[in-house]
Amino acid sequence: MTKASRKDHDVTDQPTYQVSKSDEEWRAQLSPAEYAVLREAATERPFTGEYTDTETEGVYSCRACGAELFRSATKFHSHCGWPSFYAPSADDNVELIQDRSMGMVRTEVRCARCGSHLGHVFDGEGYPTPTDQRYCINSVSLSLEPKQA
């Protein structure tokens, strides 16, 4: 996993989230890999996540707080090594923040309910999707609730 410290992110105001816990509480709840990604903005290695190629219909939620984030109807195969979505289930379910870590400027995607790092969103890459956006999300930051038959 690669780590980008929270201090590398260009955040002027630290928002208050609906779900707020101490580092100790997050560490007790999350596995070490989940904590590294969700709370320390690490990135799982490409092509290793459980949802990279999943085609199961359902709802993807934040693994830290359970908030709905994405639906399988917006998931697509981008062949980038991480699950990709062209839109969140609702715009206010995610928070977009300028990220200046790793020597570049990107847009970080966080859970709007608990502030957990999910991944990044990229624009204008030419994917044949309605938004031409790729929400590149770490599998370890998600939980999939399959659609009931």
Plain-language structure description:
It contains two helices and eleven strands. The chain is mainly β and 149 residues long. The chain has one domain: Metal Binding Protein, Guanine Nucleotide Exchange Factor, Chain A, CATH 2.170.150. The protein has a six-stranded antiparallel sheet with strand order 5-6-10-9-8-7. A three-stranded antiparallel sheet has the order 4-3-11, with no helix packed on it. A two-stranded antiparallel sheet has the order 1-2. A hairpin with a 5-residue loop joins strand 8 and strand 9. The longest helix has 9 residues, at 32-40. The protein is globular. Mean pLDDT is 90; it is low at 2-13.
Could you give the order of strands across the largest sheet? 5-6-10-9-8-7
**Strand content of the residues, in percent?**
25-35%
Give the full name of the CATH homologous superfamily.
Answer: Peptide methionine sulfoxide reductase
CATH-defined fold name: Metal Binding Protein, Guanine Nucleotide Exchange Factor, Chain A
Q: According to CATH, what is the class?
A: Mainly Beta
Instruction: Please identify, by name, the CATH architecture.
Output: Beta Complex
Question: How many domains is the backbone divided into?
Answer: 1
Are there runs of 5+ residues with pLDDT below 50, and where?
Answer: 2-13
Number of helices: 2
Query: Roughly how much helix do the residues carry, as a percent range?
Result: 10-25%
Measured between the Cα atoms of the first and last residue, the distance is 36 Å
The total count of strands amounts to: 11
Largest sheet: 6 strands, antiparallel
- Give the overall shape, derived from the CA principal axes: globular
Radius of gyration: 14 Å
Region (Disordered): 1-25
Enzyme class: oxidoreductase
Cofactor: Zn(2+)
Protein name: peptide-methionine (R)-S-oxide reductase
